[in-house]
Records
---
Amino acid sequence: MPDRLKCLDAMDFVKDWGTWRSTLKDGIQKGKSMGMSDETIQKLAVKVGDFLTAKVCPGNPEEALLKELWEAGTADERKAMAAMIFKAVK
């Protein structure tokens, strides 16, 4: 439990992998409808990934794996990971 004191609990609406993917897809669609390019959305995704990794506890095993990979990756690897996640949920 001490680790949980270092980060926020996962957001209540992200209870499973399908919901997480759906939430990301909705966010991408909203960004596009506001005129954002894929590149801009992906750059924003890197910033969000950095924030989530630092501040939010993973809510499921998949999020825990993403956090572990994100923390192990270089800045370029994180950009690549964000781009792959973007493609996967698009």
Note: The chain is about 75% helix and 0% strand.
---
Amino acid sequence: MKPRIEHRSQMFAARLMPLMIFAVVGSGCAYLQNRANDLMDPVQVGITVTDKLAPDAGLFIDFFSLVPTGFSSVDGKVLGIGNRQIGWLDYRDHSWGVVVWGSEKWGTGKFNPKDPHQARPDQANETDWPVFYDGVVRLMRGENPPPLLQFFMCDRILHVGWLGIHARLSPLDVVDFLLGWTTLDLMGDDLVAGKK
């Protein structure tokens, strides 16, 4: 029985290999760049640091932009990963929420208005991190919603004085990373070959 299972898996791999080679060659260098980008999308995490004399504060959680709870006002740096960047990055988080009503303005590293995680398509000319409204009630009113991809993120920040920690998790980006190897782009965030 075992040799038959091994034979089937070898046949499956033999049939899949030409498709994978075609996908890589057909999409050029953008294919591998997109896989690297997709690998960095599911988790944004780091140690937040206030880089000025005045302290900052934040205790904020949000699940899928639906239930913002708490308050944060942090401007400084983060040592970590965020928005497809790694290292000692600029960081800001100005968010508040009372479960069904809230607002958020956050960003890590450099702002890219063409990244669908950071801005809506109608905000392609923005030069700074935009403010979005969230919370079930506010979203039902249709006022300035966040980008679609932010509805698949869970957000946490705890910052007291000059140090803290933040984490944003996007479970759907894990699926996007896995499907990306087949050239499917579930989140619509892949670069087109030859364009940035």
Note: The chain has a mean pLDDT of 88.
